[in-house]
Design goal:
- By secondary structure, the protein is mostly beta strands.
- Helices cover 0% and strands 55% of the residues.
- It contains no helices and 15 strands.
- A four-stranded antiparallel β-sheet has the order 3-4-5-6, with no helix packed on it.
- A hairpin with a 3-residue loop joins strand 8 (79-87) and strand 9.
- It starts with a strand and ends in a 7-residue tail after the last strand.
Length: 165
């Protein structure tokens, strides 16, 4: 994470896999959380509210069952805790982030340390035989999305029962 105003590195972490995508949960609020998608079916959700001086941001890591590259994570505009992962096997996976009971604790030195939440897979669907390379949620209609894959097809889809999250 690079601070452009101060022109210095604020934080960095090696996630041990190639990074394919990064996204903050919302643009209109102070930093809350962000997701990093990687090669080898892994993604990491970082809690960006509390940064420890030595340990950085708290995070939770998860792998998807398909074992393919995750090309991007896309938070739903109407619910920042729901996110869709676009995979290299042509599938989309819907996940929900669950906040912990306590978002920060004090370490032995009295410094604030973030506490990571958990993620839960809600649905997964294969849409193509080729990687999903682009995805976007509708800002107006909850659940409506558009995506494309390397099979040269554009798909419009809809996720139902999102009001029960």
């Amino acid at each position: 994470m690079f601070d452009l105003r101060m022109n210095k590195l604020r934080w960095e972490m090696n996630v041990k896999n190639g990074v394919c995508g990064v996204q903050f949960d919302r643009r209109d609020i102070p930093m809350n959380k962000f997701v990093v998608t990687c090669l080898e079916s892994q993604f990491h959700v970082f809690d960006a509210r509390t940064q420890h001086p030595h340990k950085g941001f708290a995070s939770v890591s998860q792998s998807i069952s398909t074992g393919s590259t995750l090309w991007g994570a896309h938070h739903m505009p109407q619910n920042r805790d729901a996110l869709m992962l676009a995979a290299g096997d042509g599938s989309l996976s819907l996940w929900k982030y669950q906040y912990p009971d306590q978002r920060k604790v004090k370490d032995q030195d009295g410094k604030e340390l973030g506490v990571a939440g958990s993620v839960q897979q809600l649905a997964q669907r294969s849409l193509s035989s080729q990687p999903v390379n682009s995805f976007d949620w509708s800002p107006d209609k909850q659940g409506l999305f558009v995506c494309s894959a390397l099979d040269q097809c554009l798909r419009v889809g809809f996720v139902t029962k999102l009001n029960k999250l």
